[in-house]
Every structure is written in structure tokens, then in C-alpha cells.
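Cross-posting from the chemistry board since nobody answered there.

I work mostly on the small-molecule side, so proteins are not my area. We synthesized pyridoxal-5'-phosphate and want a rough idea of how it might sit in this target. Sequence and SMILES are below. Is it possible to get a predicted 3D structure of the two together?
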Amino acid sequence: MKIYLDNNATTRLDDDAFEAMIPFFKEEYGNAFSLHLFGKETGKAVAESRKVIADLLKVLPEEVIFTGSGTEGDNLAIRGVARAYKNRGKHIIVSSIEHPGVRNTCKDLEKEGYEITVLNVNENGVVDVEQLKSAIKDETILISVMHANNETGVVQPIEEIGKIAKENKILFHVDAVQSMGKLPIDPKAMGIDLLVFTAHKFYGPKGVGALYVRNGVRLGKVITGGGQERKLRPGTTNTPLIVGMAKALEKAYATMDEEFKKEAELRDYFEEQLLAQIPEIVVNGKNVKRLPGTSSITFKYVEGESILLSLSMKGIAVSSGSACSSDELQASHVLLAMGIPEEFAHGTIRFSLGKYNTKEEMDYTINAVVEVIGKLRMMSPLWNEFHK
Ligand SMILES: *Cc1c(COP(=O)(O)O)cnc(C)c1O
């Protein structure tokens, strides 16, 4: 038995998305920028994919820039704004729970002389909007807050922040990598100026993403080269992956409501069972709006890495803390920001469900988790200490 519960790290490619890509690896391999017949074919496919994505987001095709990843989109957006608007100001506001793609980009800009204000979250993992309001000053050029957090699935008050950004004439960047294809997103209605997503989180291929840039927003160049993607992301167009991303997103939108319901039901069942069968656990962000398939659970008095490896031996793939920091033994910055004590943050596991998961898999996982936690706690000095 192999059970994949790490869909927030990446997803299995959708079959239709795979099929849609194949011709562009074989017969239709022309450079989409070439003027000859080979280029015309691929150029048309790229234009169509751009239109599909733009229509789903209710934006203009020219506002969609293809990138190589979510990380790259975050970099292009934040560094691009920082460069283009530095004469207006050098102050950026960002949340404390961002992905490294945003977090480390801001840290880097700080070294270059930008001032970064980091917003707190409450115990549920929701960004402090009042703090945001009071952090705004004349020099503020950008606010960056993610739509849904990758570790907890907690959804942020994007519309409210979008309104505040607009009132203060500040640009608003949203990392929507986790929510794209799972929650409705309307950048124009939500006041978003820059929106980032990546195909491999919604059953598209790895190595392709997109950045929505509202018309009128200026971006300084981060990568220099030819004329592709409005010169913002030069480099030969990756036609097959772009076609695969458009197909995957189209499918995700077509099944969004039913998928949400299915995953939320499975996730809620999973959490109810664990809460009933295992003492001293906490479901993080349980009482606020979350992505349907994400379950972040703190198992007190055990080490997350031990849980992860024990479950892996039983064929179950999960992640501890954030996937990106799991090779460093550092407690997740997201969980710490929520006020979870370091020792408990270390005992937190993220189960992330996707469209291929079944009730049978969840039942198998429930039993496995109950067994693993029982065994690990028997060997845990902290647990024995707690029990005295
Ligand atoms: C996965 C992820 C990214 C990075 O996307 P890549 O395409 O892997 O670079 C960025 N932000 C969030 C919230 C993510 O979950």
C-alpha cells in the first residue's frame, strides 16, 4: 500500500494534462517565437493556453506572464516592484507565514536597503489586519500576503487587505500557489495587482507557473534576455508545460466545487477520528477558513520526524513542518508565528489530501497514525513526564 498525503508539496500529473502535452514534445516542437510554420503552431497553442488561463481568472491574456515556478513568480513580482518603484519608497509589508519564495526574497531586499515590516498572525494563523493598517506609511510600495498557507491551509483575508492596499495606493502581491484551482480567485474583484501560481500544485506539470500582472503595474527587470513574456521573463517558451498547465487549471476549475466538498469531508472525517482516538493533539487552524484538503496536526510529546519516518515505513507520505525546511531541523516559522511552542511545533505533521485520495486510504492512515503515536509516546520521556 502506498498512500500519498503530501499534495501541498506537489501533485500527481492529471492524465488529460499529460495527454495535452505530448504532441508538443514530439511533432510540434517549434520555437513559439519563430515566424515560420513550426513557430506558428506552437505560438498558437501558447496563445490559446494564455487565453484559457486569463478567462478563468477574468483578466486579460496580456496580463498573464508564464514563469518556470511559483518561486520564480514571487521573485519577479517582489523584486520587480522593488526595482520599479524604489524612487517612490523602499518599504515593503509582508506576513510572517510566507513561503521561502517570498520570505527569502524580502530578506534579500532588506540587505539591499529596503525596509521590511513583518506582520504577525493570530493563534489561528490569520494575518493581523490592524497591524497592517498601522504599518502603512508614505514609503510603502508593496504588501505581500499569501492566499492560503501551505502548512496549515489557513485562508487569509485577501479581499480586506486588497481594499486597504487600494485605498492607500500600494501594490498588492498574493502568492496563490496553494489556493489556485481549489478556491475561486478573482484578482480584479479582490484588489490584487500581482498574483502567483504554479502548475504542479494543481495536477499540472512541474517547472511551469504564471504571474498575473495587472495592466498599469510596472515591473523592473529581474532576468534580462529576449522579448518573450513582455521581456519580463525572457527565455524560449516552454510550450508543452504551458499547454499542460492550462489543461490542468481548466479541469481544476470545472471540478472545483465537488472536489472541495469531497476533500473537506474526507479531511474532517480524518480529523474527527484522530481527535477521538488520540489524546493531546491539536488541529491547527481548525476554527477558521481553510483549504479543503490540508490538515496540520500537532501531536504533543513526539517528534515530527519520527512520525514522518514511521508513517513512511507503512507506505504513507506526509510532511513535517514545511517541506522546504524539513531537511533542516528547524521548527516551522509558520507554526511558531501562530504561537505554538517550539517543542510542540516539532511534533506537527501536515497531511495534505488531493483529488486521488479515497476513504479507504484515510481509514488505513487513521489506524497507522494511532499505532505510530502510541508506540512513539511509549518511548518518549516527555510523554512519560507529562503522564506523572
Ligand atoms: C509550493 C509553493 C511555492 C513554490 O512553488 P514552486 O513552483 O515549487 O517554486 C510558493 N508558494 C507556496 C505557498 C507554495 O506552496
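Reply from a structural biologist on the board:
Welcome over. Reading the output above for you: The mean pLDDT is 96. The longest strand covers residues 294-299. Happy to explain the C-alpha cell format if needed.
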